[in-house]
Predict the structure.
Amino acid sequence: MTATASRISEIGLVIIPSVDQDRSIEFYVQALGFEKRTDMPFGGSYRWVEVYPPNGTTGIALAPPREGGPTGIQTGISLTTDDIDVTHAQLHSSGVDVDAEVSRMGEPIPPMFWFRDPDGNTLMVVQQQ
């Protein structure tokens, strides 16, 4: 297979299903400290919501699942922190459904843990190297 040049320059958004967007906004803003940057109606009865980490350029769109579509998915989203233990403790004390402990597999894999949002979607937090 031959490599071709692409005009794709960055990841702008990842989309995860949210059954109750207000509940999801509260979780991502209050528990995780994200910023809600977009919240507007679209497509008739739908609503488009985007949340971002305070310094982030890639956001998460909290979109209603397609009819019959899944929620509670393994998102593949990895968030970074400069102190995994403090972040784990803060989220745990805030009532976030976090793993019981930080996973430490040894070099070169950084310390990490998973958490679940109110819809059961799983995201990962990884300590920056």
Summary: The chain has one domain: 13-127. The helical segments are 21-31, 84-93. Residues 21-31 form the longest helix (11 residues).
